[in-house]
Amino acid sequence: MRELRSRWAVLAAGIDAATPADRDRSVDALRAFAILGVVLGHWLVTALTTANGGLSTTSPLAHMPWLAPVSWVFQTLAVFFLVGGHVAAKGYASARARGDAYRTWVGQRLGRLFRPVAAVLVLWAVVSAGMLIGGVELNTVQTLLKLVLSPLWFLLVFAVLTSVTPLVARLSPVWPLAVVAGVDAWRFGFGGPEWVGWVNVAAGWLVPYALGAAWASGAFAGRRTPALLLGGGAVATAALVLWGGYPASMVGVPGAAISNLNPPTLAAVAFGLAQCGLALLVREPLARAMRRPAAWAKAALVNLSAMTVFLWHQTAMMAVTALGLLVSADLPGLHTVPGSPGWIAARLLWLPVFAAALTVCWAAFRTYEQHPRRRPVGAVRASGTQRSPRAAGREAAHV
Prior knowledge:
mainly alpha, two-stranded antiparallel ribbon, 2% strand, globular
């Protein structure tokens, strides 16, 4: 154990030393927080139960509505889009200053998003075919595939917004916010068709993305505007939930008449504004915390494999659930109906097991996220010697 701590300290020091002095470490910390929030949120509010024979999806939020505040903590997508808009806008400005073509810049940005997707799709195509051939019920296969593929909508929206970053940089977040309000008024106030709500998939996430682009151009230098975003967003969210008829949960709940997330509603966007305001307010404390090599190394390494973690976390949970069936079809917190506080306590005990399974997935598939010319942290040279911590640090710190 002492040797392991020593090796980690050396690696953390190498990452810290290799990080450019002008890098805003708070941005990386916010992105790591957003990704880990989504992962933990899914692990806590998604349950695969054997109550109906095969595996089916349910949620503790459907059985225990008083858990809705949990979704306020772990629904962190707005922060991810805020950081994504900030990084993309700064990156595009730097690319223009270097004389790089738009095609080169966007190709590099989108390549990192979609290279890991191919590995997920290929593996699950093979696994699904194997399960069907082996006699697994079609409903069970569909349930598993839905959990795997549902996060991909996020990547598609993020890719579209990344592609139009030069336009977003000139756009005020007020305009997409107005679109979301108009769509919800049409849907819920005037009986408009349900399909019109899908306009908010783009407009809703464009709001924090545009805030991030504005941040890159120098907005939010003080604390007043972020504080207004936090306060105004929180008050608007509370009003919409208490008097506007919107659900309290900021994630979808099976069987609910309205989902705040699928598609995004005005309540979800208002909540996202509050989250963005809070994220902008904590930049300085985060930057100070990230000056510690150990803390910064963790954030940098999460960023290095952010898409791998995001794409494979559901697979990790499902793998543990499936392997658990070999022991029992009624393991508490894993296969049982999430309808009591006892289920919550049992699920918390399963989180380290999910994390261990995700680590295995990360080790197997992390290379797909890296640039073809860039080798992953800890890779071994052809000669058999391991890379130096400083070399690994340069790689992790320049994500």
